[in-house]
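Shall we go through a protein fold together, starting from nothing but its sequence? Please make up or recall a protein chain and show it to me in full. Go ahead whenever you are ready, and we will take it from there.
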Amino acid sequence: MSVNGVSNSQSTAYSPVSGTTAKAADKTKNESVSTNTEAGVVYEPSKATESAGSKVKDYSSIAKQMKGELNTKNQQLQNLVNQLLNKQANKYTNLSQLFEDVKNGKISVDSSTVAQAQKDIADDGYWGIEQTSDRLVSMAQALSGGDSAKADKMIAAIKKGFDQAAKAWGGKLPDICQKTIDKAVKKMEDWRDGLSTPKTEE
């Protein structure tokens, strides 16, 4: 096609002799070309460079957001440890008092209640060292997103939660709570070092 052919077809397209349908079709065609031209402007190299530069800025804001989320998760774990240990300490103390009262004849309870209470605070009972430490570890692993590289931060949060619980309790928690924390920390260290698999909450 020659340059003359292009200019001739353009002059024909705009000739006043053609009907209104031809004008409407040409107008639509010209708008389509105009739109395509405008769309091409969006994809210029300078804009791509600008967006690459903005991504670098986004990385710092993403890093800041991730640090904030980690701090939030650490705080959540501390609160969970505090609550769980307070519950364990309350249960242990109440049941210990119950056993003492039963032994001293202050109250009488049926043998199945005593058996259930003993089972609950036994080392492998629901409020015992093993199951309570498992729950702590499950929560820590869940809050870490399953990333064992964050184990040390989670361990620090567990210990801080223990200190908060002890303070709320009046300075010292029952020995069962200290043993539970020691067990949870050991399990977290084993997970961090690849010696165990993540715990799952049942």
